[in-house]
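Run log, item B.
One chain of 159 residues. Sequence copied directly from the ordering sheet:
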Amino acid sequence: MRIALVFVLAVLSSAAQAEVYKCKIDGNTVWRDKPCPGAGTPVEVKYERGAAPSVKSETSASVTSARDESTVRIKKKLITDDIERNQEKIRQLNQQMDVDLAALKNRSYKGGSDLTAATKKQADATESISVANSYANKIKEVEADSTRLRAERDALDKK
Protein backbone atom coordinates (compact mmCIF):
# COMPACT_ATOMS: atom_id res chain seq x y z
CA MET A 1 0.00 0.00 0.00
CA ARG A 2 2.84 2.41 0.82
CA ILE A 3 4.54 1.68 -2.48
CA ALA A 4 1.34 2.52 -4.39
CA LEU A 5 1.01 5.79 -2.44
CA VAL A 6 4.63 6.77 -3.23
CA PHE A 7 4.05 5.92 -6.89
CA VAL A 8 0.88 8.07 -7.05
CA LEU A 9 2.67 10.99 -5.38
CA ALA A 10 5.58 10.69 -7.82
CA VAL A 11 3.21 10.78 -10.80
CA LEU A 12 1.30 13.76 -9.40
CA SER A 13 4.47 15.71 -8.63
CA SER A 14 5.80 15.18 -12.16
CA ALA A 15 2.49 16.44 -13.55
CA ALA A 16 2.79 19.51 -11.32
CA GLN A 17 6.16 20.31 -12.92
CA ALA A 18 4.76 20.26 -16.48
CA GLU A 19 5.42 23.28 -18.68
CA VAL A 20 2.82 25.96 -19.15
CA TYR A 21 2.52 27.93 -22.38
CA LYS A 22 1.21 31.45 -22.74
CA CYS A 23 -0.51 32.01 -26.08
CA LYS A 24 -2.22 34.90 -27.81
CA ILE A 25 -5.36 33.66 -29.56
CA ASP A 26 -7.63 36.24 -31.21
CA GLY A 27 -6.02 38.97 -29.10
CA ASN A 28 -6.71 37.14 -25.83
CA THR A 29 -4.09 35.62 -23.56
CA VAL A 30 -4.62 31.88 -23.09
CA TRP A 31 -2.69 29.52 -20.80
CA ARG A 32 -2.19 25.95 -22.07
CA ASP A 33 -0.35 22.80 -21.10
CA LYS A 34 0.60 22.13 -24.73
CA PRO A 35 2.65 24.26 -27.14
CA CYS A 36 0.67 26.99 -28.82
CA PRO A 37 -0.13 26.92 -32.51
CA GLY A 38 2.29 29.36 -34.11
CA ALA A 39 4.45 31.11 -31.55
CA GLY A 40 3.75 30.48 -27.88
CA THR A 41 5.91 31.38 -24.92
CA PRO A 42 6.85 28.70 -22.41
CA VAL A 43 6.46 30.09 -18.91
CA GLU A 44 8.24 28.90 -15.79
CA VAL A 45 5.76 28.05 -13.05
CA LYS A 46 7.28 27.76 -9.61
CA TYR A 47 5.36 25.78 -7.01
CA GLU A 48 6.06 26.21 -3.35
CA ARG A 49 4.50 24.01 -0.76
CA GLY A 50 1.47 25.69 0.79
CA ALA A 51 1.53 28.64 -1.61
CA ALA A 52 -0.17 29.46 -4.86
CA PRO A 53 1.99 28.95 -7.92
CA SER A 54 3.84 31.99 -9.17
CA VAL A 55 4.30 32.57 -12.86
CA LYS A 56 7.53 34.14 -14.06
CA SER A 57 7.69 35.59 -17.52
CA GLU A 58 8.87 38.65 -19.29
CA THR A 59 5.28 39.77 -19.71
CA SER A 60 4.48 39.93 -16.01
CA ALA A 61 6.21 43.31 -15.81
CA SER A 62 4.21 44.60 -18.76
CA VAL A 63 0.95 43.39 -17.19
CA THR A 64 1.87 45.18 -13.96
CA SER A 65 2.82 48.28 -15.94
CA ALA A 66 -0.49 48.25 -17.83
CA ARG A 67 -2.38 47.81 -14.57
CA ASP A 68 -0.44 50.72 -13.03
CA GLU A 69 -1.13 52.92 -16.07
CA SER A 70 -4.82 52.09 -15.83
CA THR A 71 -4.86 52.93 -12.12
CA VAL A 72 -3.09 56.24 -12.79
CA ARG A 73 -5.57 57.08 -15.55
CA ILE A 74 -8.50 56.36 -13.21
CA LYS A 75 -6.96 58.41 -10.37
CA LYS A 76 -6.34 61.33 -12.74
CA LYS A 77 -9.96 61.18 -13.94
CA LEU A 78 -11.27 61.16 -10.36
CA ILE A 79 -9.03 64.10 -9.43
CA THR A 80 -10.12 66.03 -12.53
CA ASP A 81 -13.76 65.40 -11.59
CA ASP A 82 -13.07 66.72 -8.06
CA ILE A 83 -11.45 69.85 -9.52
CA GLU A 84 -14.48 70.43 -11.75
CA ARG A 85 -16.80 69.99 -8.74
CA ASN A 86 -14.72 72.55 -6.85
CA GLN A 87 -15.02 75.02 -9.75
CA GLU A 88 -18.79 74.57 -9.71
CA LYS A 89 -18.83 75.04 -5.93
CA ILE A 90 -16.87 78.31 -6.30
CA ARG A 91 -19.32 79.49 -8.95
CA GLN A 92 -22.25 78.69 -6.64
CA LEU A 93 -20.60 80.44 -3.68
CA ASN A 94 -20.04 83.58 -5.79
CA GLN A 95 -23.69 83.53 -6.92
CA GLN A 96 -24.96 83.08 -3.37
CA MET A 97 -22.68 85.88 -2.14
CA ASP A 98 -24.08 88.21 -4.82
CA VAL A 99 -27.65 87.32 -3.78
CA ASP A 100 -26.90 87.88 -0.08
CA LEU A 101 -25.12 91.19 -0.71
CA ALA A 102 -27.94 92.41 -2.98
CA ALA A 103 -30.46 91.56 -0.27
CA LEU A 104 -28.47 93.58 2.26
CA LYS A 105 -28.17 96.50 -0.13
CA ASN A 106 -31.90 96.50 -0.87
CA ARG A 107 -32.90 96.57 2.77
CA SER A 108 -34.22 99.97 3.59
CA TYR A 109 -34.66 101.56 6.95
CA LYS A 110 -38.00 103.22 7.35
CA GLY A 111 -38.56 106.01 9.78
CA GLY A 112 -36.41 107.55 12.46
CA SER A 113 -34.05 110.46 12.51
CA ASP A 114 -31.09 111.06 10.25
CA LEU A 115 -28.77 109.78 12.98
CA THR A 116 -30.70 106.52 13.26
CA ALA A 117 -30.67 106.05 9.48
CA ALA A 118 -26.93 106.73 9.33
CA THR A 119 -26.28 104.24 12.14
CA LYS A 120 -28.39 101.63 10.36
CA LYS A 121 -26.54 102.19 7.07
CA GLN A 122 -23.22 101.79 8.90
CA ALA A 123 -24.45 98.53 10.44
CA ASP A 124 -25.57 97.30 7.00
CA ALA A 125 -22.16 98.17 5.53
CA THR A 126 -20.40 96.28 8.34
CA GLU A 127 -22.68 93.29 7.80
CA SER A 128 -21.99 93.37 4.05
CA ILE A 129 -18.25 93.32 4.67
CA SER A 130 -18.69 90.40 7.07
CA VAL A 131 -20.77 88.46 4.55
CA ALA A 132 -18.25 89.13 1.76
CA ASN A 133 -15.34 88.04 3.99
CA SER A 134 -17.18 84.87 5.01
CA TYR A 135 -17.73 83.87 1.37
CA ALA A 136 -14.17 84.85 0.45
CA ASN A 137 -12.84 82.48 3.14
CA LYS A 138 -15.06 79.63 1.88
CA ILE A 139 -13.90 80.25 -1.69
CA LYS A 140 -10.24 80.31 -0.59
CA GLU A 141 -10.68 76.90 1.09
CA VAL A 142 -12.13 75.41 -2.10
CA GLU A 143 -9.39 77.02 -4.22
CA ALA A 144 -6.73 75.61 -1.87
CA ASP A 145 -8.26 72.15 -2.25
CA SER A 146 -8.22 72.58 -6.05
CA THR A 147 -4.56 73.61 -5.93
CA ARG A 148 -3.75 70.50 -3.87
CA LEU A 149 -5.66 68.30 -6.33
CA ARG A 150 -3.84 69.82 -9.32
CA ALA A 151 -0.48 69.13 -7.65
CA GLU A 152 -1.56 65.55 -6.98
CA ARG A 153 -2.63 65.15 -10.62
CA ASP A 154 0.66 66.65 -11.85
CA ALA A 155 2.59 64.21 -9.64
CA LEU A 156 0.73 61.33 -11.31
CA ASP A 157 1.80 62.69 -14.72
CA LYS A 158 5.44 62.43 -13.66
CA LYS A 159 5.19 58.74 -12.73
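Observations after the first pass:
- The two ends are 60 Å apart (CA to CA).
- The mean pLDDT is 77.
Flagged for discussion on Thursday.
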